[in-house]
Amino acid sequence: MDELQNRTSEQEDEKMINDAFQKLLDSYLASKHRKKVEIITKAFNFAKQAHKGVRRRSGEPYIMHPLAVAQIVCQEIGLGSTSICSALLHDVVEDTDYTVEDISNIFGPKIAQIVDGLTKISGGIFGDRASSQAENFKKLLLTMSEDIRVILIKIADRLHNMRTLGSMLPSKQYKIAGETLYIYAPLANRLGLNKIKSELEDLSFKYEHPDTYKELVEKLQATQLERSSVFEDFITPIKKRLDEMGFKYRIEERVKTPYSIWNKMQTKHVSFEEIYDILAVRIIFTPIIPEEELNECFDIYVSMCRIYKSHPDRLRDWISHPKANGYQALHTTLMSHHGEWIEVQIRSERMNDVAEHGFAAHWKYKDGGGSEDDGELDKWLYTIKEILDDPQPDAMDFLDTIKLNLFASEIFVFTPKGELRTMPQNCTALDFAFTIHTFLGSHCIGAKVNHKLVPLSHPLQSGDQVEIITSKSQHVTPEWLNFATTAKAKTKIMAILRKEQRMAQKAGEELLTEFLNAADMELSTLVIEKLCKFHDLPSKEQLLAAIGGKKIILGEDDLNALREKTNNANGWKKYLSFPFPTGRTNKNKKELQENEKKKKVNAKDIDRKKTLELTEESIQDSYIMADCCHPIPGDNVLGFIDDNDHIVIHKRQCPVAARLKSSYGHRILAAKWKTHKTLFFPVNLYLEGIDGVGVLNAITEIISRQMNVNIQRLSFETNDGIFEGKIHLYVHDVEDLNTICKNLKKIDQIKNVSRIDQ
């Protein structure tokens, strides 16, 4: 009986595998690529044999994963046979006994090179330690600059992993979702894979905040009929006009994704009902005369403006100046006849193809070369190579520097000679100087923007013409890091500062040695410690740099400090800072030390596969509530084991937690609340509204008397009849907080109530 069942199961598996492969072939044959079916079939059979008998955590045969990745590579990214074969083989070298040499012998050097690149960055970008994580990320970027197909296939691999994330443990889900939001989504965005970027963001959001995700999806469904009605009313006159102009076109209704809606709710502190740009309209047309494609976009724009009034500040011309990822379209915002602003995107079929598939839409692989359209991508890869030449010593700094480039929206700035430069939004004159040349940046004293003199910190706007003013006597200072915003500028400034620091330390060591020799003393650890204490400096490096930079002039006072005997028999005291759990800072030192010891034991003995239960007892005795986000019962949370084996509880959307999920995923723990309204937790509320007599009294009446909640701190400011206020109070959980917010919103003068972290 068992044998029969096994045979039936094998037959079902075989059918599922063959159906998936046939679907892949059908997609490939329907594409514009040359029909190299033979090599794809060969790669499929090879991978199928190599992974035979292996199953995924979900229970399906392992070969279904490479098939799914190949399907994404073919259908959703639009790559050809080389990439499809590499996708089918991407796990063979890592998971089986086959080598890269074997792949090269059977499938040729190009496929072998891509598979090798994918193997190097396997298991996610991030390793178990921050240092290895930075190294792996460097590998990813270096491999990517050799052949962009490596990262495109890696993104497809991550997309399929995200689609099948439901079979993983919650702690793994948070790690993978966090890593995806932190690195893969911005990478996909930068490469122009807008559809994939949106899906990666939504899937990450779905697993990190399942309840909120479900709630937003339901609200979107509930308001769909209303949106469709607005859409139809809005496009009816547009369709009539386009028909008169003789265009072949299609008009799509584009709705904001749950993640982008939630993100806006978080950043703007507004509710779902207060977001007015959920609906957008996309016009995709076939040019009547291909050579006049750009002009025809503007013709359509002009005809739209005759039907509806356009917003004067919201025309975005990505046609004349494409984004760095190749994106082209004309964006405008029009006022509908119902009094709503609606964004309209105008693009040709070619532009739409690039918008959906990014660089893959025009990436040509002939004799290892790209197409002439890839100049912007080459510029971006060159920038990343420059950053890799001088990586940050700290892994997180390194990643954040890279992310400055990944996330940046572009503006267009001109040199004095009229050359166009693409720069990140919010960049400064100093950033522009470093973009031109490192020497120019490091000796920059100011700039002329549109012929007006401005400081280094001046933020640039699209269309500015910038002339950099330099001086040979100018030197880089640490303050420059406060207003440098681009990855290149920050990297170069830090490299120069480190070099100057090393030179100053060397000079300082020489001066200190001479000074001590003259006083018949030798340079020792004790001497350094005494001088550090005397000058109130934390480290030897800072002391030597201060001496070398002439900030400290050694003299008689220093000799007196060195000759003083140490009163403490145990030598110099070390000052340590202990993390205090929220609301427990009144414990004495001995009690705190016992508590810390107890926490260490709990963190080491914890079963990382199980979900932490946050009870009243464990919150008080075993875990630390993060100060950066102040989680309270009802928040979506996770646990993090820090370097001291303490378990710190963070909100899942906390920016600090986002970095931890990406860098130290193996230390992330799933957690859930199990409290019963006995403990109080601190929260901060932000209020704004119209000032009037009795507003403050009404607020305190609701919080203190009606809700019986203790207000810890309260600050209000009024300006031109508008007030802003912050209230620090203690509540049991999110339910209490929501009730307070709901009641406060009933006060007529209050227009906004939202929770803030600080």
SSE blueprint:
Blueprint: H1 2-29, H2 37-50, H3 64-77, H4 81-88, H5 92-95, H6 100-107, H7 109-120, H8 130-146, H9 149-163, H10 170-190, H11 194-208, H12 210-222, H13 224-245, E1 248-255, H14 258-268, E2 279-286, H15 293-307, E3 309-310, E4 316-317, E5 330-335, E6 341-348, H16 349-357, H17 375-389, H18 395-407, E7 410-414, E8 420-424, H19 429-436, H20 438-442, E9 444-449, E10 452-454, E11 466-470, H21 487-518, H22 525-534, H23 540-548, H24 556-563, H25 589-605, E12 612-614, H26 616-621, E13 623-625, E14 637-641, E15 647-651, H27 655-663, E16 668-673, E17 681-690, H28 695-706, E18 711-719, E19 722-731, H29 734-745, E20 750-756
Parallel strand pairs: 2-6, 12-16, 13-15
Antiparallel strand pairs: 1-2, 3-5, 4-5, 5-6, 7-8, 9-10, 9-11, 14-15, 14-16, 17-19, 17-20, 18-19
Helix pairs in contact: 1-3, 2-4, 3-4, 3-9, 4-7, 6-7, 7-9, 8-17, 8-18, 9-10, 9-11, 10-11, 10-27, 11-12, 12-14, 13-15, 17-21, 18-21, 19-21, 21-23
The appropriate CATH architecture of the largest domain is Orthogonal Bundle
How many distinct folded domains? 6
Number of helices: 29
Write down the Rg: 30 Å
Q: How many β-strand runs?
A: 20
Strand content: 15-25%
Percent of residues in helices: 40-55%
Overall spatial form: globular
- Regions with pLDDT < 50 over 5+ consecutive residues? 123-133, 364-373, 566-601
Provide the CATH top-level class of the largest domain: Mainly Alpha
In CATH, the homologous superfamily of the largest domain goes by the name Hypothetical protein af1432
Structural class: alpha+beta
